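Budget justification aside, the reviewers requested a transparent look at the raw inputs and outputs of the sequence design task funded under Objective 1. We therefore reproduce one unedited record. The lines immediately below are the structure tokens for a 213-residue chain.
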């Protein structure tokens, strides 16, 4: 994967408002904002073509990015991205500053591995039903993983993998589990295969004969 997707050039934007943002988009630019830390929020402008290429990569959303803002490098995370309702266009991006030595909160995608060899699927013909596809975690910037693996190799039919069953990387903590008892979320369940539909009449032991006239 090219490191270019984690490095974006940006410029400080002084012309603000909806009209200014609309004019920016017409010139192939994307309005954005950078906030967090002890510094004031800064309005930015980024190149749309480079941003649209970068956002195709899953890691773009869970990786510490480097924004080159008029020659000054700032580390940040994507916190929100707004898109056009039907066109392949990004209309606005929120970035949060990443401060070295300070823990951050963000979402990390889950990668489900070994589903094809899980006994509940390979042997018993079940299927995996995913309840959660990403986890909210807290960690130092240096410990932030691009994704977290959920190993399905030993999961049986009818078994559910919970949040507490996942082995988190060193230095990474689950925000949900930190809330205490009752927050051990179900992550994925191997459900039994669906059989052919059974006619209601058959289920009752047969169909009634038409009454004689």
């Amino acid at each position: 994967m090219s490191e270019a997707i984690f490095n974006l050039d940006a410029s400080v934007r002084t012309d603000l408002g909806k009209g200014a943002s609309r004019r920016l988009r017409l010139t192939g630019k994307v309005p954005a904002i950078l906030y967090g830390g002890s510094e004031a929020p800064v309005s930015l402008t980024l190149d749309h073509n480079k941003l649209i290429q970068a956002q195709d990569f899953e890691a773009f959303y869970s990786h510490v990015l480097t924004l080159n803002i008029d020659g000054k490098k700032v580390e940040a995370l994507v916190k929100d991205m707004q898109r056009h309702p039907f066109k392949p266009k990004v209309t606005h991006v929120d970035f949060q500053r990443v401060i070295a030595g300070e823990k951050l909160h963000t979402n990390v995608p889950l990668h489900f591995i070994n589903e094809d060899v899980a006994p509940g699927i390979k042997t018993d013909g079940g299927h995996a039903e995913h309840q959660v596809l990403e986890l909210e975690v807290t960690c130092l910037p240096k410990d932030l993983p691009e994704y977290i693996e959920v190993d399905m190799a030993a999961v049986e039919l009818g078994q559910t993998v919970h949040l507490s069953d996942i082995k988190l990387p060193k230095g990474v903590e689950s925000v949900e589990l930190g809330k205490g008892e009752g927050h051990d979320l179900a992550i994925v369940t191997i459900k039994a295969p669906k059989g052919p539909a059974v006619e209601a009449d058959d289920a009752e032991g047969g169909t009634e004969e038409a009454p004689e006239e």
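The longest strand covers residues 72-83. Residues 18-26 form the longest helix (9 residues). Computational costs for records of this kind are itemized in the attached budget.
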